[in-house]
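Lab notebook, bench 4. Still working through the backlog of constructs that have no structural model yet. Next entry is a single chain of 647 residues. Request: give me the structure tokens for it.
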Amino acid sequence: MTAELVRGQNHTLPQTRLEIRVSAGSPVVAGATLGDERGTVRGAERIAHPASHRVPGLEVSRQAAADHRLAVDLDALPAEVHRVTVVLALPVGAGRPVSFGAVAAPFVAVTGLDGTEIATFTLTGLDTESAVSALELYRRQGAWKVRAVGQGYAAGLAGLFADQGVAAAAETAAAIQEAVASGLARSVTPPPRTTEGERVRHPAGPAAAGAQAPAPPVPEAQPAEPLGDPASARTEAPGGGPIDYAHPRRQTSAPPPPPPTAPPAAPGQPARPVAGDATGWSMDERLYNQIWGMFEDLARAVAAYRSAVDFAESRMDQELDRALSDPRNRIGGAGDRAREAARAKRDELTGRAREALERDLAQLAAESAVVEPALPAAYAGWDNPVWHAYHVPMEIPMALRLGDLRLGEAPDLRIPLLVRLPLERGIWIDSGRTASEAAASTTGDQLRGLAVETAVTLAARLLAVYPAGEFSVHVVDPAGAAAGQLSPLVGSGVLAGPPAAGAEGVASVLAHLTRRVDLVQMAIRAGAADSLPPDLDTGEHLLIVNDFPHGFDDRAVTQLRYLADEGPSVGVHLLMVADREDARAYGPVLDPLWRSLLRITPVADDHLADPWVGHAWTYEPLRTPQGSRVLEQVLALVAEARRGGRR
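Model written out:
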């Protein structure tokens, strides 16, 4: 039976391998401190946090998220550790909550590895605090217990660490928040939260793979809750262009149609996956939700496997230490037998973990095989036949595919990286050198060329999935260095104007888009959409900036930052092709700009993180098939539709 704890109450723990699950109303930082008998933390190395997510016996998430799972092995803790305190904190940053009183009360559960809850605690009564000691696991007379703490700190992590005796508490807290800010910048934004259980899961899927398998997905991975105004209720501006750039709600007045069901499986065989087996108000939304479910399933399955392997290695090391500490085992063959037994146990545990992972991967591969061919153009790769039947859509899709993601344990299983439309943040295509193997085998000039080509294919995809005339693309290429790569956009006539060159061209385009952002913002705030100038294009706009910061003075840089911060909410989006090293002369003034953008690369690179576990995923950009004319054909249809709309 689950013990529902209140502040100060304790409960005996029946086992030493545990998970601590945290659910909060907004992203929080989850960490833990290891204290002695008095609760004193002897140094920063005894703190598990996103920048140092693993300490002996404990592993925490590597980033801020609304849901966390902390892995605990109490037997693997150092002997001098008598208290493990689970710490929650709000990440700092513009637009983020500054106190727990402004968000839903966090919920913490201590569970066994099979997901069975042992004790739970809801942290009510918090107000101005921005950090809190949620609960502690403590050793008492050889047994472990859990106590609900709920002690908040208005001074944040610095105050919490100081209270636990951490030297240089303020510096440690600042370093953690800096790591969290960097992690949020590289993390893929999850879909909005909704109710639990909306994804239909097959009996043989990851949830049924045994104790080694991941638990069911947390709500964060689910689709937008079907609440709010329907998409048809968006505010109209003169000429019929929408100026409410919120995400489409995908709501109808009727309940969503039931998802497709799989045909009955043969006895003893797993159910066959079906494309669109998630809930949603349309097939596109069901596929979107299904892909995000697959994304999380793979993240959780690999996390469970890695945790099991780490546990097996840790257990082997402990058994070897105990065996070899006995002088009697140092002579004869006793020591060799102890080593062989410990390694055999390690191999058995890792083998079982690998079997569970293989079952999960097989199910996900089968699901991917039926989902990929069923994807609409906005979600599909360029090699999907759906592009050969392409026609200009009548409405904006729910999301757009930016590329593919994969993990080392499953190199052949690729998960589409989908982002919601309209875009919530700009995109930065890194044209600089990275540590990836693909980048190391590519010259600097080739990387810059591939980065522009990636920008062109992404711009073409955006133009293709928007209705005719509702999306415009502007290009700034100060030195004209990308003329060859930009030719598909220029030659098809889909650009709003010729690529801007030189400092004057840069200033003109930035002034035009800045004026548009200012006017639309003022109209929205005043509730006076009818007062917008009749020549103002209220459709959405994309600005492609190549070779930044060449051609940019201080005023232009300020305008660019303004567009990155304020533009997305009023339909102006930024796509930068740049090498961050080239902008070092500006110092830290551009750090907020880089962090506001989603960084992708023109070649495979493991720089993106998922929003649940924080794995480093290898991102692969979308490429058109060798020798294919699909890009030119799609752009020609877009240009024809735009010309028809102007007649």
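Notes after review: Residues 195-242, 244-255 have pLDDT under 50 and may be disordered. The two ends are 71 Å apart (CA to CA). Flag for follow-up if needed.
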